[in-house]
Amino acid sequence: MLFNSYVFLAFLPITWMIYFLLNHFRWYRLAQSTLIIASFVFYGYEDYRLCLLLAFSIAVNFLLHLGLMSNNCREVLRRLLLVWGIGINLGLLYYFKYFDFTLENLNRFLGTDFVLRNIALPLGVSFYTFQQISFVVDSYSRKMGKCSLLDYSLFVSFFPQLVAGPIVLHKEMIPQFQNPENRKINYDNMLSGAEYFIMGFAKKVLVADTFAKICDAGYENLFELNSISAVLTVLAFTLEIYFDFSGYCDMALGLGRFFNIIIPTNFNSPYKALNISDFWKRWHMTLTRFLTTYLYIPLGGSRKGLMRTCINVMLVFSLSGLWHGAAWTFVLWGMMHGAAMVVYRVGRKFFDYLPRVLSWLCTFLFVNVAWVFFRAEYFRQPWRLLGRVFCGGAGGIHSDMVSALCNNTIWELTLERPADATS
Q: Pick the catalytic residue: 65, 170, 284, 324?
């Protein structure tokens, strides 16, 4: 079930009324259980097996949490539980997202003939996997307060942020679920929630879907593009991906506020960034926070010299690219951002003294070029599109792009099922 679908328009008010009605009669645990059940219904609406995977993941991680928080558990066993916890979570993510990718590359480079399993990628698995890894790691560090199975289940499955993030932390969510004041209807939160949801919905349906049609038309006619059409194709995806993901996150913020839950902000005008470091402080902020806290710092961060820092940066950004999708184009996109971050760190004194307009332009142009590799369906495609940008010749806009612009959702608003959100 997605936020911009007809069935969700019925799901939301029914869930909201039942939740607050049960809280009104002080049936708090039942209200919490009902919200968990509703979140599972939301997640498994099109495939009940998704609920089985989510329930298994929650149960395993909560059991690990109990072991890690136990005072009777020896340190050696706690370390083993930590390794198991990270391994199980990454193992599930690997199987569903990267197993076929591994077989495909073995077949390609080693000449093997492994049969691909065509494993369906569960929605949101990348988000709630990272979410639970942070929970296990913090349980090992004993950075946890009191947490029941119901609290934890709701923390993981809470439907506003389950499918497309943000990647939330236990310390910013579980205390809100436990706060008695959040069990009462708050009309100010509902009003601000409606504003966020409507804004996010408009970003997704009116803006992102429109630019998606223009971008798709460009990629479908790649060999016919002139320079102008190629540039518009690049810019269309730059705007599509921002308004699509930002729209989903705004809708999540709004839906959370309907239930008096403040979900962390994930975007802060990233295309205003004056350098690549600033960009990653504004773009997908919760992913940047997770990778910094649970990967970059444990690797040594910037504490072990410039060379080690550059290696850590490249590793983190390469893995970030792979997290976004099982394809070498995603890895290359991550490596491009990693290399840009290394260049900025080495030459920071120079870059910080550039005029603001020039700094912004360089950053924005680089982000646009990198998005070409992110959007690519195969490895040669981005090079061909960039070749069209510089060597495509003069002329008007491609006719299919004009058609896409004239037949878009701004002029004819419909509630239609979009492509699956990023997992």
A: 324
Dist. CA 361–CA 242, nearest whole Å: 17
Contact criterion met (CB below 8 Å) for 23 and 31 = yes
Question: How many CB atoms neighbour CB 314 within 10 A?
Answer: 17
List, as one string, the DSSP characters of 96-155. Answer: HHHHHHHHHHHHHHH---PPP--PPPPTTHHHHHHHHHHHHHHHHTT------HHHHHHH
Q: Residue holding tokens 């390794």?
A: 83
**Is residue 65 annotated as a catalytic residue, yes or no?**
no
Q: State residue 319's pLDDT score.
A: 95
Region of residue 378 (phi > 0: left; psi between -120 and 50: alpha; otherwise: beta): beta
Half-sphere exposure of 84 (CA within 13 A, CB side): 15
Residues in contact with 212: Cβ distance below 8 Å, sequence separation at least 6, in sequence order:
236, 240, 244
- Give me 245's structure tokens: 């993901």
Which tens digits make up the pLDDT trace of 78-125? 999 999 999 999 999 999 999 999 999 999 998 888 999 988 889 899
C-beta of residue 227 within 8 angstroms of C-beta of residue 396: no
What's the whole-model pTM score? 0.89
Distance CA 335, CA 340 (A): 8
Please choose, from the candidates 9, 94, 12, 1, the residue with its C-alpha nearest in 3D space to the C-alpha of residue 51.
1
Q: Taking a C-beta distance cutoff of 8 angstroms, is the pair 151, 31 a contact?
A: no
Q: Is residue 81 within a helix (H) or strand (E), and if so which, with residue range?
A: helix 75-110
CA atoms of 163 and 199, how far apart (whole Å): 19
